[in-house]
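User: Design a sequence. Structure:
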């Protein structure tokens, strides 16, 4: 079956199309968010997608949103049967991959919690021994667990690359109290997910979250601990110093590192075997998440 790469809903205004999600106006206070099957990596969207990926992402986020009672979120309705017109007329497009949410003022920072040394954090550590202002012990190895989880925000770019920054930069932009609350919530969500996933034999290495503000209150928006926004490692095969077996988008990134694509020009199509393997990994992490929440 074909992957859903774009959406068009007659009678509805599309207000934004991101790397994976399309957003429509529902009414003055609500939006409809559709998780497509688009694939992004290294800040590029690939010409082919993964069939059913958006449904998996939507299911995972909804599971976490409903499970985390300690933080408010933007979800209003997850059941397509209750969607208003014109959305109710497009079950083949929206069922199982879309939600109705509250409108929120987006906070323009990615909020990242890291429990292990990997990805851009590992690259930064190799250069100067720190990540986003967090000075780390010398001699740490790739994929090693950090002494304690750290909060590492990044600027949220509409185009181009997000840039890792220190919490001081966030404090200057948002104010001390808001920045500290974002750090506290991010780490609390990460610890919750990490503890849950250990029961499924999975290490949650890191996660990226987005927040918004409604009535001067911070709420969780976008997605929650999906394989697009987090690293999930197989605990049984995990070894410090080695690239771990993962159930997330890192599999695609690792493949791309073996190609001659320069990460700046339009990306090439992903091979069928990479698409199929990624789909299997996403399905497996959904199964594991379902088993613990």
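Assistant: Done.
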């Amino acid at each position: 079956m074909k992957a859903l790469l774009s959406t068009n809903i007659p009678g509805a205004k599309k207000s934004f199309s991101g790397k994976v999600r399309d957003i429509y106006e529902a009414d003055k206070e609500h939006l409809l968010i559709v998780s497509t099957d688009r694939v992004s990596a290294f800040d590029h969207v690939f010409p082919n997608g993964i069939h059913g990926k958006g449904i998996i992402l939507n299911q995972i986020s909804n599971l976490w949103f409903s499970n985390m009672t300690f933080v408010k979120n933007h979800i209003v309705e997850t059941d397509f049967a209750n969607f208003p017109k014109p959305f109710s007329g497009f079950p083949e497009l929206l069922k199982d991959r879309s939600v109705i949410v509250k409108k929120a003022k987006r906070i323009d920072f990615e909020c990242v919690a890291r429990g292990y040394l990997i990805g851009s954090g590992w690259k930064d550590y190799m250069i100067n021994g720190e990540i986003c202002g967090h000075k780390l012990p010398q001699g740490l190895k790739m994929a090693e667990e950090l002494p304690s989880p750290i909060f590492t925000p990044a600027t949220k770019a509409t185009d181009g690359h997000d840039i890792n920054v220190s919490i001081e930069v966030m404090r200057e932009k948002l104010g001390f109290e808001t920045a500290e609350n974002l750090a506290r919530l991010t780490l609390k969500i990460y610890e919750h997910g990490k503890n849950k996933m250990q029961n499924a034999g999975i290490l949650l290495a890191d996660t990226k979250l987005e927040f918004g503000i409604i009535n001067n209150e911070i709420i969780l928006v976008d997605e929650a601990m999906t394989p697009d926004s987090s690293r999930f490692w197989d605990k049984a095969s995990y070894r410090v110093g080695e690239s771990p077996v993962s159930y997330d988008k890192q599999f695609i990134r690792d493949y791309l590192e073996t190609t001659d694509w320069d990460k700046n020009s339009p990306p090439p199509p992903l091979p069928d075997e990479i698409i199929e393997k990624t789909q299997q990994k996403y399905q497996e992490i959904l199964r594991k998440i379902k088993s613990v929440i």
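The two ends are 30 Å apart (CA to CA). The longest strand covers residues 202-214.
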